[in-house]
Amino acid sequence: MLGYLRTFLPWIAFAVISTPHDSRYGALVGAVLAAVLLAVDRRAGKPWDALIIEATSVAFFGALAIAAFTVTKAPLGAYGSAVSDEWLALVAWGSLAVHRPFTLGIARTMTPPEVHDSPLFYRVNAVITAVWAAAFTVTGAVLALLVQVAPHATTLVILVKVAGFVLPALFTARYPAAVAARHRPVAQ
Asked: Which of 41, 57, 102, 131 could cross-link with 52 by S-S, CB 3.0 to 4.6 Å?
């Protein structure tokens, strides 16, 4: 689970640093963190398929930082958090659409090579990616709704953001073990 926390560190920093009216520094910190994490992971030999979120984070935060420092008004306005979650949703759903769940490469770095070509291994990662995609989609939609109906409900926004990360992270930590237990041969 800590690996996922590290992966989403630029997104967490963006959420903490940005305000509804100023996303410049949140975007800049997100871009720098994403670029540094990507460089460190590549230098350590991590394959590109294990770095889908990191690579797309560099693109998102790089573009947002450029826009934030060149456009007078905050480019995303009060919808920054919602848009960032929907970007992650798009990446996750897109990885499923091309049959390359973003968790697959990450899981390969944490499992023995003999399971990597298993249909069950793929299926577990497709389910985990779908859970993350759904969480990002719902979180982004709820955050956008909150901007409309309760723009000053900071505590609720924080709870939604935390739940949108913690719930799929807990699922990710527990689901593979549950599947493995169901598929373990029974001793006679």
From this structure: 102
For the chain, the average pLDDT equals 88
Phi, psi at 25, each rounded to 5°: -75, -35
Q: In the prediction, which pLDDT does 116 show?
A: 92
**Alpha-carbon gap, residue 146 to 111, rounded angstroms:** 40
Residue 94 lies in a domain: yes
Give me 101's structure tokens: 């769940």
This prediction has a pTM of 0.83
111 CB contacts (<8 Å, ≥6 apart)? 121
Please tell me the total count of domains within the chain: 1
Note whether 146 and 153 are within 8 A (CB).
Answer: yes
SS3 percent helix, strand, coil of the chain, rounded to 5, is 80, 0, 20
What pLDDT is recorded for position 8? 82
Answer whether residue 91 shows pLDDT above 90.
yes
Contact 30, 82 (CB under 8 A): no
82 with 147: CB under 8 angstroms?
yes
Containing structural domain, residue 42 = 2-182
Instruction: Give CA–CA dist 135/51, Å, rounded.
Output: 19
* DSSP-assigned beta bridge partners for residue 22: 19
